[in-house]
């Protein structure tokens, strides 16, 4: 457990923006995974899988771009067919939504309930496509906590996803200097938060262990939300 001493206590923020996979929940199904393969085949005519492409801390568009680059598909073709890709993946996950089996990360429900009780603005900043991200949150029972989200449909880089989410939070709060926290689970979340100038709390509830995350010197690093709540 660690929390930087040069930051205000983490509960004093005005808004909190959460990553989804590995932070709020972990998917125990293959629905999203298979949607990638279906879309890559149907939209680009390529029989390939996302295996071997870094996915944790990546974005859905970034993952597909990497697969297509590996298969020799030109960036121009990818960019031309992004709308079809987004539609196909969303339709696939919607069609198989009953099979979604998200598992909440430890104490995440308690954390969101606490933040909500204190009147904090809650949003999502995720590399998921929007339709897919909301379906996961609906399946997990967490959707009612979140007022808005920023996803990868129009912002392939995590930094841009964060930037849009931060701007929307400040717009909703009506304060340009509102204190916004990002909560994630990967080194990519830490880098994106630094590039957008907001404090970041990371949880070792995804694939990255506490020691590795802590080495990137986030503003707060915890094994899970149980420890984060204890630090409040």
TrEMBL record:
The keyword Hydrolase applies. GO terms for cellular component: cytosol. Transmembrane segments: none annotated. GO terms for molecular function: phosphoglycolate phosphatase activity. Keywords: Hydrolase. Pathway: Organic acid metabolism; glycolate biosynthesis; glycolate from 2-phosphoglycolate: step 1/1. SUPFAM superfamilies: HAD-like. Its EC number is 3.1.3.18. InterPro entries: HAD-like_hydrolase_sf, HAD-like_sf, HAD_2, HAD_sf, PGP-like_dom2. It is an enzyme of class 3 (hydrolase). Pfam families: HAD_2. It catalyses: 2-phosphoglycolate + H2O = glycolate + phosphate. One of its GO terms (biological process) is DNA repair. It comes from the Bacteria. Belongs to the HAD-like hydrolase superfamily. CbbY/CbbZ/Gph/YieH family. This is phosphoglycolate phosphatase.
